[in-house]
Amino acid sequence: MDLPHQLKAVTLTHVRYRRGDQLGHFLAWISLVPVFISLGGFVSHFLFRRELQGIFFGVGLVISQFINEFIKTTVEQARPETCALLEACDSHGWPSSHSQFMFFFATYFSLMGCKGIGFWFGLRSRWILNLLHWCLAVVTMYSRVYLGYHTVVQVFAGAALGVVVGGSWFWVVNSVLYRYFEVIEESALGRMLCVKDTSHIPDVLKFEYDNARAARKNMEGGPKSGKHCLANV
């Protein structure tokens, strides 16, 4: 049995670069940004915030990745020849999932900023934050070509698909699903998980700050609720 041919790497986290290549080392870490966003961003968001806008943002990224895998397995376009050195030839290359992930994220995040959803910053800070996400998306796209995992065509295809799917999902969430947010909040599961929507509040930071201070002042001697959110018991 040829053992190496029986093994398959998780391509989202399996990143290699040339020894001594400092730029490659940096870009290898940049390639892991989607993993950091998924685990560090959305998991912690659900645990501590439980905002419906953020939850559906994460759901959209998962749907986007399923679309990417479906297209890859349908088209079956090979990665560049360097895939042999990277041990990545057992997966297809078109479109790039990293590029699609980051451009979906940048598109959706920018549209949220334009609509003023979930932002605690001024207009100038929003533009700076949006610029940061687009820069990360472009650098991630470049990293996949530089490291030899994709061709230029494959990363541009992923970027284009990410923009289209991201924009489409934003429309679905805020034009179709938004009308059901209150129903989700008031459902038995929604109340148990304490999910909420604050996108209708102009200044969420100030709102939560004022309510936290008011709750602290009224905490001593006040009535205590007998119900708790899941994971808080």
From TrEMBL:
The chain crosses the membrane at residues 26-48, 101-121, 127-145, 152-172. Residues 54-170 form the Phosphatidic acid phosphatase type 2/haloperoxidase domain. CDD domains: PAP2_dolichyldiphosphatase. Pfam families: PAP2. The keyword Hydrolase applies. It comes from the Eukaryota. Gene3D superfamilies: Phosphatidic acid phosphatase type 2/haloperoxidase (1.20.144.10). Its main location: membrane. InterPro entries: Dolichyldiphosphatase_PAP2, PAP2/HPO, PAP2/HPO_sf. It is found in: Membrane. Keywords: Hydrolase, Membrane, Transmembrane, Transmembrane helix. It is a multi-pass membrane protein. PANTHER family: DOLICHYLDIPHOSPHATASE 1 (PTHR11247:SF1), PALMITOYL-PROTEIN THIOESTERASE/DOLICHYLDIPHOSPHATASE 1 (PTHR11247). This is Phosphatidic acid phosphatase type 2/haloperoxidase domain-containing protein. It comes from Brassica rapa subsp. trilocularis.
